[in-house]
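Exercise 7. Given the components listed, write out the predicted structure of the assembled complex. Treat all entries as one system.
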Amino acid sequence: MLSIKNLTASINGTPVLKGIDLEIKAGEIHAIMGPNGSGKSTLGKVLAGHPAYEVTGGEVLFEGRDLFSLAADERARAGLFMGFQHPIEVPGVSNASFLRLAYNKKAEAEGRDELDPLEFDDFIHEKIKLVAMREEFLDRSLNEGFSGGEKKRNEILQMAVLEPKLAILDELDSGLDIDALRVLGDAVNRLQRPDRALLIITHFPRILETIQPHYVHVLSGGRILKSSGKELALELEERGYDWVLEASAAGGAR
Amino acid sequence: MTSMVAGSNLLVDLLSGPRPAEWAPLRAAAEARLEGRDLPTTRDEAWRYTDLKALAAIPFGAAPRATVDISCHLLPEMVGTRQVFVNGHHAPHASCASAVPAGVRFLPMSTASEACHALGSVKNGATPELFEDLNSARFEDGAVLLVPKNLRVALPLHLLFITKAEAPVAVFPRVLVVLEPGAELELVEEHLGEGTYLSCPVVEVRLGEGAILRHERVQREAPEAFHIGTLKAEVGRHAQYHSRTLSFGARCSRQHPWVRLAEGAEGTLDGLALLDGQQVADTHSFMHHAEPDAVSHQLHKCIVDGKARAIFNGQVRVAPGAQGTDARQQSRNLLLSETARVDTKPQLEIYADDVKCSHGAAVGQLDPEELFYLESRGLNADDARNLLTYGFAADVLQRVPVASLRRTLRQLVMARTQATSLGELA
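Answer.
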């Protein structure tokens, strides 16, 4: 589904990604872990098309298409979704209106019927149950005055509405208490299907207890230093990141 | 055609206007002050950015009586609580006060003799601005609204001022609102029209102890119109005055809201201006914390496109002894073109020590992070820009209490922010 080859990217002329290789197939869940400043959030933003980052080399294919030939909105309509670490507040636009607009833009792109406000109302009421969101959050302005946890809940609601093929979730666990993390983790699991894939970006292994990855990658200094099965997450929980970094420096971690 | 406000003919023309006897003292005082005065120029500090040369060049005449079809301006919540004025004259056939609750006096000034002594009684301590004096000297009719003690009026009231100018005319709407202690009311004041004209309204508000007035003000004058308005609100102890001024129309508009807060009172002066082309919208506000423990909020937003220009000057005065004051002011401006311009200036005068005063001003373009967020959800760049612009404006409309008005205003904002392609937005 996603094939990343020797991807390099920079921001303001400073290289941040220094050669990433990663293959994600349909049905798979991958976790990218790493210390702060390792470049893992950058990877998510580059894939989603953030304008501040410049792709300086390499290739990314998303379902066989050159990802970088698509603008951010085209990527979204093609089925790529990124859950933001810090979702943006948009005053004056109700959450429900925004969700319906996003839904209809995608439906239009896929040649499906758009939903009118009444139809969407039924649709969204099923979706909010999945993330245990209170109804009042639909009428409030998009993310405005939401707590950190409520914003994350809203990100997963958007994911549930847009039903992406590939969802990249950047630090979903930050700002969430343990109960909310479980609710959202379960929701993400329920959205996962054999024809979809997930890329979880996280600093802490805790979220991976709920959303269990098939593969765990350690990213540091803009490179993937180590890739392994989910047991790597447990090892990182016990031992931290230093041993991976040290082993990599000694040339033996891969 | 006589010229009513231009140049040296100012006073001569004013003296020829109608002079109902009840208003004689108010008129005489205004006329005395007007003698020898001329229109302000950009050399006057308060008018530095708003050039009235174009106004001075137009020979405005007196506005004749006219009939207009108001059906498209009626709002369902207020069909039975409306007073309509056309070209400054009361329009009895367009008005309907059948649903106004007993005890509330809501009627044209020309028939409300009991209220006339109160006109001009809301004094801001300063010499009235020239345009306020022009109104006092020249108004022919207006609305009086009196709400008795402890009456909470459930239905909103609608004041509609329409100007229909075949040749250039000047109109001087006058409004007096008095809420006795404990009374509560929502008032919608709307100004619109067609043709070339000057609308120069003066609204006086007096709130008794604990009274609450929510005042929505909509300026959607014709594209060739001038609108120079004065608002004076005296807010009694623990009373609340909340106003929102929405400026969409007029080639040149100027608002002078002045609010005086007594002990424990609360005042809101929110504003939104949507400007394009060569439009100018100027707001010079004055929030006066005269006594302790009053709270004030001001959020003034402008969206400026084309070669338009927005001006905001927000004066806040905390009088000596007005301890416990909490005054907040925000001026936020969105520039949509390279040639649009905003001049914003807070002006704080604080003469007490135990006060909280905050102010902020921001002028800028849309935030790239916000645009990216929307684009990452599948909205193309244009839709994302239009949605953010719409949201910036619609934010101010969220708390408009009358549902049909809120819808109308949202549609107006959608049309002006090219957001109509986005479908229905709430």
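Discussion: The two ends of chain B are 48 Å apart (CA to CA). The CA atoms of residues 233 and 425 of chain B lie 34 Å apart.
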